[in-house]
Amino acid sequence: VGRCRSSKFIMAHIVLHKGDSEEWIAQQRVKDTKAMAHYGPLVVKRDSELALLRVLEKMAQLRDEAVKEDIITVLEQSPCGDSSGNCFAERSVQKLVDIARVHKLA
User: Fold this and answer.
1) Residue 39: pLDDT band with limits 50, 70, 90
2) Virtual CA dihedral for 75, 78, 80, 83, nearest 10 degrees?
């Protein structure tokens, strides 16, 4: 699950196994950033999960290669145990769960 701070755009993709679909999900995340019109420098905040780090590193590599300028993707890790640093991401996940619940009940 990802969310753009400026547009509030939420992106979510189902991955069946951690690590198995690294290439696919990384390419999809690059498409997501293009859909949000992020062509300049990008800071991606993440937690300490290793599987997520591999996907985001691959996404940064693909995105930086595609742009071919001095535009970079920066991966920023939230400090361990810092729930306030992750609150934006946690709220995004909760919002997505709420949306799914509404659709399931409809």
Assistant:
1) confident
2) -150
DSSP, residue by residue, the chain: -EE-TTT--EE----SSTTTTHHHHHHHHHHHHHHTT--S-EEEEE-S-HHHHHHHHHHHHHHHHHH-SS--EEEEEPPTT-TTTTHHHHHHHHHHHHHHHHHHH-
**C-beta separation of 91 from 85 below 8 A:** no
Checking if the pLDDT of 34 tops 80, the result is yes
pTM: 0.71
Residue-level length of the chain: 106
pLDDT tens profile 69-86: 667 888 888 776 665 666
> Helix or strand or coil: residue 79?
coil
How far apart, in Å, are the Cα atoms of 45 and each of 41, 90, 98? 13, 12, 23
What is the predicted pLDDT for the residue at 47? Answer: 77
